[in-house]
Amino acid sequence: MLVNLPYKILIEENIFPHLDEFLKSLKIGERFSIICGKTVKNILGNKIEDNISSDFDFNYILVDDSSKEEDIIKKISNEINEKDFVIGLGGGRSIDIAKYSAFLSKKPWIAFPTVLSHDGVVSSRASISSNGKRISKEASEPIAIIGDLQTIKKAPYRHIASGYGDLISNITAVEDWKIASKKINERFHTTVAELSLLSARSVMAHTKEIREKTSHGMEILLWSLICSGFAMNIYGSSRPCSGSEHNFSHALDELGSNALHGEQCALGSIIMGYLQGIDWKLIKEKMIEIGLPTNSKEIGIEEDILVKALVNAKNVRDRYTILNEIEIDEKKAREILKEVEII
After folding, report:
1. What is the pLDDT at residue 262?
2. CA 256, CA 121: separation in Å to the nearest integer?
3. In the 8-state DSSP scheme, what is residue 188?
4. Which residue in 271, 273, 253, 270 sits closest to 261, CA to CA?
5. Distance of CA 206 to the CA centre of its chain
6. Burial 196-205 (b: 16+ CB within 10 A, else e)
7. Which residues of the chain have pLDDT under 50?
8. Is it true that domain 8-153 has CATH number 3.30.1330.10?
9. What per-residue confidence (pLDDT) applies to 226?
10. What is the pLDDT of residues 109-121, one digit of tens each?
């Protein structure tokens, strides 16, 4: 087993005075590109430029929202061929584009998230839009992670809650993994499973601080997302953190949902926890406490779409979950969703 984990992680209330020294300590070169959106550059550009010495030669590559991600990645992977490394700065889209572009160009990359909406920060998988669908692509882990707590605290609260939701869904993901281990003898790794569950338990224990966006709360959320990513990287797939609740989320994506990934996964965990026979009410209580949507009206998805997503979820991908144990047609799906008060 070969596992690649980040070489260094820098998390501070204000990382910018430490940025130059940190990049030099990595010893991966002096020429790099920062891949980000225009808004993020406008907010953080001056801070970055004021704190990086002339020893480095860098430029920005702005991600255009109007272009296809596959076209953007092809263009960027060519542009960074002469660079030593890249930095993915911003939210999930910029991080994923930087991650996959670096992978194609065989360049090391650094994750600098400004929004903690999901656990893809440290994951070796990149979520890329292709032909109207989001697909998971093999990529590479970041060589380093940078977290500026002042910046993270300024992110829209909905995205912070979404990150919490992605983590709490690890509970049902691990339960599905246990089911697969018993029913089809899928390889189960207790240490990795506990690392995944640790990420969920950590945020659940600090819900109030995360809700109030305290520095400690944001640090707990970031470290939990990192640990969740570690679990996936160690195991070599998303299995430790992605089960039937993620199938449900992917099914919603295919039906045109505009809700956030973590919101959908958390909602899916209420359903799947109920089907698995675990304490789904605790999951729901924590979702209410953090401010996540727990029903059709709150998440802004029509009841019929939720029903279809639950029916379709089993066939989204080839991964054994609780959905393989239960036959769910539209009538059954509606009964389940009513039982857990989602519709």
Report:
1. 96
2. 24
3. -
4. 253
5. 19
6. bbbbbbbbbe
7. none
8. no
9. 94
10. 999 999 999 888 7
**Same CATH topology for 8-153 and 157-339?**
no
The set of residues, in sequence order, having a beta carbon less than 8 Å from that of 189 and lying 6+ positions away, is 234, 235, 240
How far apart are the C-alpha atoms of 195 and 198, rounded to whole Å?
A: 5
Domain ranges of the chain: 8-153, 157-339
What's the pLDDT score for residue 339?
98
Per-residue confidence (pLDDT) for residue 268, from 0 to 100: 98
pLDDT at 66 (0 to 100): 63
The predicted pLDDT at position 128 comes to 76
How far apart are alpha carbons 10 and 258 in whole angstroms?
33
Q: How many CB atoms lie within 10 A of CB 65?
A: 11
DSSP 293-334: --SHHHHT--HHHHHHHHHHGGGSSS---GGGTS---HHHHH
CATH of domain 157-339: 1.20.1090.10
Q: CA angle, 315 as apex, 309 and 316 as ends, to 5°?
A: 70
